[in-house]
What does this fold into?
Amino acid sequence: MFSTLRPKIDTLLANPAGTTDDKLQTICDLLKDTVPYYDWVGFYFKNGDKDELKLGPYAGAPTDHVIIPFGKGICGQVAVSDQNFVVPDVQAQDNYIACSISVKAEIVVPLFVNGINIGQIDIDSDTPDPFTEADERFLEFVNERVAKLLTKG
It folds into this structure.
């Protein structure tokens, strides 16, 4: 599945039409609609000079978590650690921000531009423990491609 998604991501990002947000929205929609256990897909970005993340394009149920302070929840922890964070069971996490009672698992992968963590892709799943190393590698690929888009302006 991921091998067929990679060229689609490249084609989508290479398209000269559309804004950056349009392209990120299309990625979110594509991943949510294609990967059966990706129930919410979104990008969070560092909010200016503040130590917080701000929600960008996403696909899935609306969320109240538009701003997340660094260190809070899984996304906030990734903003500080610069490391992927895979949560097989969100109920087992002390520092988890519940977005929906149906969410069972989460994966967050940081997005680096010129070596600086400027945001992340966040995936929630209603399926317990669905994420594998293949998900991590694929989402790293997505973020590498998005970083190239962001550095082009």
